[in-house]
Amino acid sequence: MTERSHAQHWPPTSHAPEQAAEQAPTSMGLLYPVGYILAVIDDRAQAERAVQTLAESGVAEADIDLVDGAWFAQTMVDIKEHRTPVERVMAFLAVEEREFIQEYVAEGVEGHTIVIVHAEQPEIGERVARVLAEHGAREMRHYGRFLITDLRG
Q: What's the pLDDT tens digit per position in 15-63?
């Protein structure tokens, strides 16, 4: 697998959700960020502490995003609204992937923080999962090339 930097395939959270939706990594009309771990942390301050711990453990800060839940939810709505007819069918058939995204959207609507970490290397992924779990992360999943792995431990 060729490693790419986080900035090469994840839209900046400074962009408007509609613009971010155009740049977000998708598959079958759904968000599918290969090489990333997504997780939910209820409290923004706790999420910020998790980022600090990740950075102290050697994860590049540039590979970590704390995403406002409402921004994330709106970005997912924008992705859905711009699906082609084929993508609509594919998204309908991708039940598990669709359910995961719906969970993150519901968490975002509730005001929780979505933590997104670029973690292509297995050893980085293990470290990220451990640190996030220590900081109360839930709904933690790694998006691999062909498989989404639940990291609840």
A: 777 777 787 888 888 888 899 999 999 999 999 999 999 999 999 988 9
Closest by CA to 47, choosing from 59, 64, 32, is 64
- Helix, strand, or coil (residue 124): helix
| Site of tokens 């959270």 | 13
The gap between the terminal CA atoms of the chain, to the nearest Å, is 25
Residue 50, burial from CB neighbour count under 10 angstroms (0-12, 13-18, 19+): buried
Residue pair 97/30 in contact (Cβ under 8 Å)? The answer is yes
Amino acid identity for residue 134 in this structure: E
Question: What letter would DSSP give residue 110?
Answer: T
Q: How many CB atoms lie within 10 A of CB 60?
A: 13
